[in-house]
Amino acid sequence: MTASSAEAPSPPRWRLVAKVESHAIVTTLNADLEVEHVESRPLDSWWHGGIDGDDARWVWSDTNRWYPRALGAEVAISRCYDLRLGHAILRDSALVRDATPVRAATQWETVADEPAVAAAPALFEWDAPVATGIPDDPDEVLAEFVRQKQAVRASTDPARLRLLLAAESAGALLATEMNAAGLPWDRAAHESLLEDLLGPRPTPGELPAKVSALAATVREALGDASASLDSQPKLLRSLHRVGIPAESTNRWELGEYDHPVIAPLIAYKKLTRLMSANGWAWLDEWAANGRFRPVYVPGGVVTGRWASSGGGALQIPRHLRRAVRADPGWRLVVADVAQLEPRILAAMASDEALAAAARDRDLYEGIVASGVVNSRQEAKIAVLGAMYGATTGDSGRLVPALRRAYPRAMGLVDAAAATGEQGGVVSTWLGRSSPGASTGWRDVQAAAALPDATEADRTRARRSARDRGRFTRNFVVQGTAAEWALAWLADLRRRLASLPPVDEAASAPRSGPVFARRAHLAFFLHDEIIVHTPAAHADAVANHVRQAADAAARLLFGDFAIDFPLDLRIADDAAKD
DNA sequence: AATAATTGCGCG
DNA sequence: AAAGCGCGCAATTATT
Fold it and tell me: Exposure winner among A83, A208, A318, A474, fewest CB in 10 A?
């Protein structure tokens, strides 16, 4: 079991922080979870007498609730245990033998329509309505911590779950820090791009010049000066009137038709999309003061990926990346993992053939070189189809070749799909499990099994079974990739903290969190990171980024020969291509 | 008038 | 050229 090699060198101590009325209660526990010390501290300095000098780890209800206050006072915390996130993992993990005590503690469930994260300024207010509803009472915090530790200890694989929980909590710290630091955003670069594409900023209520010109062209081609272009049903009717029998107005279907209206219409849709998603209003709201501050939501996706809330943080169009620009005297280190998910799959399945195809090169080219398919494009389609469960089209046709060449990797995802189709639960490498089948899903399956079931019942059941199979098929890979990425981030965060801060007199460390005076993570998106670093440290940072990727690979997969090559650039901006 | 669902498109 | 996973958001229409 490779994941067990990462045991803490010394037994950790824990420092719980909770809240009673207007005081923070800090409880120190030894490694056996026995109370060593309890003290009361002011809420606005609960971290004082902090623990950076010792090996203790903060335990708290919710990183969003506690950490922003410390960060706001320029105190960075190196390690924590987030009970809310831990609860969500342990409640569902198939590695936990008896989840009853954890599940019974429903007060630790995050209510869906009560966002776990809110806009940063409000987080500093203890009594603001952003309160998550998660307990802060010292007895309850201790009780939940003990429940979770017990669930892990009695699990089928405590080492893996401990890794997962530590990584999840490290991610929570980082999410808060990245929100505080922000991604350096060049307003002028963004504005000039908007002006080039859309025209000068219009007065409110008006369309930019280039957009209204395109709209006029489209209306002329439709022969209708008052045609509505923003209403899908009306646009569809207009298209039908000029002889375009489209069933939808999405771009690829429109592209199928040969008509003078198509090109300007597609251009119009592109521009209005840019305008409404990342136009001047977005710039004013999300990238004021030279920083884009996404609200990251660790664990926000069932698979363990991060979600985001506000600003479309994870959907920044590629061509806008050039507006990400380092401060004077600083650089960006931009790195992403090439073909993360198929590499993860190769390692999970111990598929030596797939790992060999991936080694030291583009994985898709490796598959072509092995003679499995004829072109890189085919390899890509086949691999994506294998991981997503494609059954038709080019992708579906190519999957069988992959199944012959890489039976272990394909066996793993096929098994995950079969489990899901039968209503079962699948788990990632470190033990995050998929949600169980819903009662609605079970009802559909049960109805189809009855003697008087109709053919329609059976068709519906088969379809929903396959839908669920595609979800579980992808869950194991996407979720384990998210774990790898968390391990990468956590190790990199620790490495960057060891770099020296810039000399305040010499450079431009503006105002901002204390950790942002040295190289720090500024952006994360599934398999990509951006580090903002003093120029003098950029090469060192690049090495740390690579070493952290290697460390993540070894932490998860031990000696299995899989590599995770990075596309890495040191630059002043984060432009793609 | 407020809320829900639909459509389309940006990202991995 | 295209149909298969996971998201968030804006604009519009449909529902209450």
Answer: A318
pLDDT digits (tens, 9 = 90+) for A509-524: 455 677 778 999 999 9
Q: Residue A142: enclosing H or E segment and its boundaries?
A: helix A138-153
pLDDT tier at A504 (50, 70, 90 boundaries)? low
CA of A289 to C1' of B3 (A): 35
Structural domains present in chain A: 1-181 (no CATH), 187-286 (1.20.1060.10), 351-476 (no CATH)
Nucleotides of C under 7 A from a protein CB: 1-14
Pairs from A146-150 (Cβ < 8 Å, separation ≥ 24): A146/A33, A147/A101, A147/A102, A147/A105, A148/A83, A148/A86, A148/A87, A148/A90, A148/A102, A149/A33, A150/A101
Angle of CA points A496, A502, A504, to nearest 5°: 145
- Closest nucleotide to the alpha carbon of A466, via C1': C4
Amino acid A378 CA to nucleotide C11 C1' distance, rounded Å:
37
Interatomic separation, CA of residue A457 and C1' of nucleotide C4, rounded (Å): 24
**Span CA (A273) to C1' (B9), Å:** 8
| B chain positions with any atom within 7 Å of a protein CB | 7-12
pTM over 0.70: yes
Contact (Cβ atoms closer than 8 angstroms) between residue A384 and residue A396:
no
Residue at shortest CA–C1' distance from C8: A312
